[in-house]
Amino acid sequence: MLPAQHKLTSPRQFRRTIKDGRRAGTRTVVVHMRINGGEDAIAATGPRFGLIVSKAVGNAVVRHRTSRRLRHVCMDLMADLPVTADVVIRALPASAEATSDRLARDIRKALAKWDM
After folding, report:
1. What is the pLDDT along the chain (116 residues), one digit of tens a residue?
2. How many helices (H) and strands (E) does the chain have?
3. Cα–Cα distance measured from residue 9 to residue 60, given in angstroms and rounded to the nearest whole number
């Protein structure tokens, strides 16, 4: 489970990250990342993550399993990202069958497309 300070909590935070951030996709996920400035940067305690796992991924059991795997990957990524980063990860239908290792590789591959 992600600690509260590492979660995007409001729809406004999700929209801002998706709209103003950079995007990179792989076979299993689309990753949006935005580096905060201003007030959000002052209060930053570490990177914040948000997950979007829609019904296109599968039924409730599959979606929850996918979300758990993605949260675990996010925990591993915390040390590698700037503390002012907001990241939204959108799971694609292929993520339902992907292993945790595959999800981690795909997310790291998407993040590697940007100079951080």
Report:
1. 788 889 998 999 999 999 999 999 999 999 999 998 765 555 667 899 999 999 999 999 999 999 999 999 999 999 899 888 999 999 999 999 999 999 999 999 999 987 65
2. 4, 4
3. 21
* Burial per residue of 88-115, b for 16 or more beta-carbon CB atoms within 10 angstroms, e otherwise: bbbbbeebbebeeebbbebbeebbeeee
Distance CA 32, CA 102 (A): 18
Tokens of 104: 């981690």
Residue 52: name the closest of 5, 13, 109 by CA: 13
3-state SS of the chain: helix, strand, coil percent to 5? 45, 20, 30
